[in-house]
Structures are given as structure tokens and as C-alpha cells.
Amino acid sequence: MNRLTSGTVSLFALLLVGACNNDPTSSLHNGVTSMDASPSTMLVTLGKTKKVQVTARDEQGNPVESAYELGTLPAGITVTRDSSFLPEFVNESLLSVPPTAPTFQYIVGGTDLVSTSFTVSAGGKTVTIPVTVGPDAANVPISTVVSTGPNASDPTVIAAPAPYTFGPDAAVAFDAGDAIVLSTSTDGTQLTILPPPGATSKGIVSGLIVPYLPQVPVSDSTDVALTINAAVPSQAGTDKLSTAPDVSANPVFYDGGAFTGADVTTDGGSGAQYYKFTPAADGDFTITANWGNDSDVDIVLCNDVTCSAPDFSGGGATSDQPEVAAQTLTGGTTYYIALVLFDGAAPPWVSVSIQ
Fold first, then answer.
1. Most exposed residue of 18, 142, 220, 235, measured as fewest CB within 10 angstroms of its CB?
2. How far apart are CA 136 and CA 218, in angstroms?
3. Which DSSP category does 278 fall into?
4. Which domain-ending residue is among 134, 154, 180?
5. What is residue 314's predicted lDDT score, i.e. its pLDDT?
6. Rounded to an integer, what is the distance from CA 81 to the centroid of its chain?
7. Is there a single domain that holds both residue 249 and residue 348?
């Protein structure tokens, strides 16, 4: 009996040793082998905060009780441990976060418009968490009017508030209508426009972006109101295709909007005025027309002086302002552009942009 018991004990000990050598949880004793963050990347609005959880894991992916350490923080963000995340009782009345835990939660704040990152380490491993601080659409700094003139033919230059720039769709609207965008500086910091005749307000600037986050445009206004002479510049279309002025050298302008010409485009309009344009080279062009009332104006492109081949490249409901037509044009070919008054009274002015 004693021999049997002794043998049984020895066999059991051997089985234990064998079992320990194949312990499926033995990797738990190997410490931290990886770290992860949820979310793995962060987009934080300027002046606001978001939370991120960081977890240390073993080889099997199990969370490991650890002490976490923040790396040196870059400019533009703040990072603090969330004291409300899984606190423990220090005594009967006091809750506090423990010095070690499987997961720490951090609060990340945006203090400047930056694209950056921070690190958290534990057990010799480190995780890097990218952070993009985006603009707060409700608190965008004001754009500055650099220069202007009293007339709609005088270009106005507007500077974007740093670090914002003007995006490809930047625009400026006034109480009298939309401005014509002449150009954007190479670095995107300045926008040159022609304000509409009779503007007496600050401009509402749209299409501001931060360079690293161009897909999130925001709006603001100009720092001062503009006062623009209501008289329309002397650039004028004519009532016939044969006498249409050549606007090739000045393809962005205002016109008095007389609409006294007959509509020869077969568009069915009550009046029209005409211009001609010869592109220097082949390319894609956008013809934009706007006007100073709620009438309906169409853009029609003709390939010859008789408008025998009209291209109805613009047109629509009364509310379709501005009217926009995208065309591929051949360099050296003269095209005739008709603005056709389709419905309503003749507008006090029209703007034309061929770019």
C-alpha cells in the first residue's frame, strides 16, 4: 500500500511537471510584448478634447498589468491621464486611479492647429499615437483685407489668418452678391477678388483650409466691411455677335447687363449680349456668370459669328446663380459667348469669368 501510494505520488509529480512544461498560459510570465491604442489615430478639434485608451499585452494578446509612461509631449496638444477611468478606493471615501493597470485612459486636447503624435511606454514597449488637431468651424480667426479700391473694377486682396490658407474652392460673398475670384497666391495665403458693385458689407469667406487637412474647409469673414461703388465698370458686351468685344486679354470683368440684343442662339431668351474669346492654348475652361437680381440668365457658347453651332453649356432655374459652364476649348479658335436673359427683368449688372 505504501509502495502504491508512493508510486502514485511520483507519477502525479511527473504529470505536473509535464503539464507545467505545456502550460498554455506560460506566456503570461513573459511580460509586455506589444502595446495598442484605441483609437489608433486621433482627430481632435481645436480647443476641445478626446479620449484614448492604451493597453499593454502579452504574446497571447492578453492585457498586462503595467505602469505607463508618457513620452515628451510636442507643441500643440495636451495629454493627461483620465482620473475618472476605473478608479479604486484608497479608503472608504476616496477614489483614485491605481499606479498600475491593464489599461490607462488619456485625455488629449488640441491647443494649436498641428499634425503630430505622442508616445506611451510600458514594459520596454512603446506605442505612437498620431494626433491631428483640426479647426473649430465656430471659432475661425478673421481674414484681413490687405488692399481694396472703391470700384468693382479694383481688385481686393484678402489675407487668410495663419495657419489657414485659401483652398481651391475659396469664395467671398457680400450683401450685393458673390465676388469674382481672380487668383490665389502660390502659397495660398492671399486671395485676389473683384467685389460686386454696390457691396456695403463684410465679406463671408468660405473655403479656408489648414494645409495638412484640406478636406475640412471652414468659413469666416473679412475684418472690415467694403464699400464698393454701385456704378458698373465700362467693360460692356454688345447686342450682336459681329460686334462682340474681345475679352481674351481681360477674361474676368463686370458688365452693365443691358441685354438689348436679339437672342440668336435658339435658346428662346428675351434678350442677350455677346462677347468673344480666343484661348491661347488648348485647355479646359470654366465660364462663370453671375448677376445682380433674381432673373434667369443662361450661358451659350457659339463656335462662329452666326452661332450656327450653339452649345447650351449653361442654363437652369432662376435660383441657379452663379451660372457655370465647363468647356474644353481649342487654342487659337475664336469662340462667342452669349449671356441670354431667359426670364425676368434685365439685371443691373453681370459678372463674367473665363478661367
1. 18
2. 8
3. -
4. 134
5. 62
6. 32
7. yes
> What span, in angstroms and rounded, lies between the C-alpha atoms of 252 and 254?
7
Q: Which residues of 141-172 are buried (b: 16+ CB within 10 A; e: fewer)?
A: eebebeebeebbbebbbbbbbeebbbbeebbb
Confidence of residue 210 (pLDDT cuts 50, 70, 90): very high
Residue 45 neighbours by CB distance under 10 Å? 17
CATH of the domain at 129: 2.60.40.1510
The last residue of a domain, from among 182, 198, 225? 225
Range of the domain at 47: 30-134
**CA gap 199, 176 in Å, rounded:** 5
Residues in the chain: 355
Q: Which of 261, 255, 251, 250 is nearest to 231 (CA)?
A: 255
C-alpha cell at 352: 463674367
- Sequence-distant (≥ 6) Cβ neighbours of residue 117 within 8 angstroms: 74, 128, 129, 130, 131
For residue 5, being part of any structural domain is answered with: no
Pairing of strands 252-255, 350-354: antiparallel
| Structural domain count, the chain | 3
User: Are residues 284 and 206 part of one domain?
Assistant: no
Share the mean pLDDT of the chain.
88
For the chain, how long is the longest CA-to-CA vector?
126
In a domain, 330, yes or no: yes
Which residues share a beta bridge with 323? 289
Alpha-carbon separation of residue 140 from 158, 160, 161, 205 (angstroms): 15, 10, 8, 11
